[in-house]
Amino acid sequence: MTKKTMKDIDIEISDKDTKIDTEQTDFPVKEFMKTFEAIDWKLWEILQILQKWDKEEDEKEESDD
Question: How far apart are CA 60 and CA 54, in angstroms?
Fold first, then answer.
């Protein structure tokens, strides 16, 4: 099995030039953002675990050589 390296992905979300008034929409923006932030945090935690496993695998391969 070929080892694949993970790449860092940097995404910035900004509300600086937003023309939409979130208070006037039918969509629950505040609740969505809370949920989105929770999902983002969990994905970050998963990425940290995967990077830790990748590092441990690298160290194991180096010690086997």
Answer: 10
Q: How far apart are CA 25 and CA 17, in angstroms?
A: 17
Which among 38, 36, 35, 46 is positioned nearest to 9, based on CA atoms?
46
Tokens standing for 19? 């023309």
pTM (predicted TM-score): 0.52
Residues 6+ apart with CB under 8 A from 60: none
pLDDT by residue (tens digit) across 3-41?
566 666 666 666 666 566 666 777 888 899 999 999 999
Q: How far apart are the first and last CA of the chain?
A: 17
Instruction: Estimate the share of the chain in helix, then strand, then coil, as percent rounded to the nearest 5.
Output: 60, 0, 40
Residue owning tokens 């953002």: 33
